[in-house]
Design goal:
pyruvate-formate lyase- activating enzyme; nine-stranded mixed β-sheet; three-stranded antiparallel β-sheet; 40% helix; globular
Length: 341
Amino acid sequence: MKRQLVIIQHLYVHIPPFKEEPVVNDYFKNLTNELSMINQQYELKLKTLYLGSEITTNLTLVDLERLLQLFLPFTNDITEYSFECHFANINNAKMVLLKQFNVNRLVWKVITFQEQWTNKVCSNFNVQAKIALIADAIKTGFTNFSIDLKYHLPKQTITDITNDLLICQKLAAPHISYDSNNKTLNLAVKKVINNFLTIHNYDNYEYYSYCLAPQFQSQQTIAYCLLKNYYGLGPNATSYLKTDHKTWIIKNSNNIKAWIPKMFLCSATEVLQTQLMQGLLLRKGLSLSKVNQQELTYWQPLINKLIAKNQLMMKNQQLFCTNDGWTLLNEVLIAIITNNK
């Protein structure tokens, strides 16, 4: 019997790399069982569905159709249906198939368009081949797409970054994701990226995400930041569920043949800490009106300190970063992690 109180609106599916056909069959068998289990245990009313993969994942056209067919019954009322594109796992025939199965958003994991990295990551695709494939996707009808880039790559220059952005502009990319390739924040590079995209009318609605118009904001990313119930299917996937006044994190093991879920109960303090950290990734911040008010008193001294430092602002119970806090968000998040009052 379904738990009527637990509604899943956001689903993530991890597609691992495959080397042998028997492993592919094991994956689909376990994925089908896992989907059946959550469909019985929870109420699936999907708004977003994200098919994620790894750089070496390459489903055949037949297996891709098999995957899409599995989730077809859940896509009738979907708002955002995303497929993650690495240049080794996508071609024109697959793009046509994705379109037929209601996929309406492509996420291009480009990393960079610069040749010195392109050759290392995907030797069969030079820069022009990458650009041509994205242009083909636009012709196929995928007008909602993201180009995901990274900075802090080895030997990457400001000119490299600017050239990547110029290519995105030439493709009229409605959404760009740009994050660091390592843990160190380089404010100078971040400002170059922000200034370029701001001049060209991109809104930095989420710390790593920029879009040309509100309809191109990633609904899956927003749901993740706001800690909406989401479920992760497949090996190495993670779920976040609020059930019966409790919050659970479920982590699947990384065994393609038979992944095992482990459930972790979150304390009220952990829940609010996660809400603060992920909610502040959104430019609009997060509402404190529905958070655990008893736990909020524990975090209030830190919040007050960050407000006094002009890094956070509070208006109508909405907590969000100031311009300074947005620039130095890593410092704000570290303060929350360490609860440095």
